[in-house]
Hints:
Mean pLDDT: 95
CATH superfamily: Alpha/Beta hydrolase fold, catalytic domain
Amino acid sequence: MTFYSGFSLLNEEHFFENYLKNNDYTIAGFSYGAIAAAHHALQSTSRIDTLQLFSPAFFQTKSEPFKRLQLSGFRQSPQVYRNRFLESCFAPYDVQEVELDWNANEEHLRELLYFEWTEKLMESIVSKGIRVEVFLGDQDSVIDVVGAREFFLQYATVMSMRSGNHFLEEQFND
């Protein structure tokens, strides 16, 4: 299995171990990494059976002022931006320890914010015989969950975690 990490993150696939298909024919990606995973699936000439997208970066419904504000915040202080971003990723629960990729830069953030999931991209992946699975947390405060669900339902099996955050973590009361 090949896994692509989210923006500013490394080695976070353990958050998804209950869902990951750990075999040679699966490509998976989390958030920003879902973009790279989709491109890999599209361009690969090797056998790929499943593309797993965990909380795929879905910002195409967000306004231009929102995107500019994100980029401005990163420019002002990448460290403060990352901290706030992680708080959003884990909300409404406590922030967990994650490994950070300090090489992530403004261009990566720009790519994430301005990437558009298109019918052409998804149809091309599906036409290769690749099964697409999308995992969304209904409490995700990072991406447009409703827009993502509506878009991906046309091409994928979409699984929703009712109280899941961006990392799909759920906390249950006894």
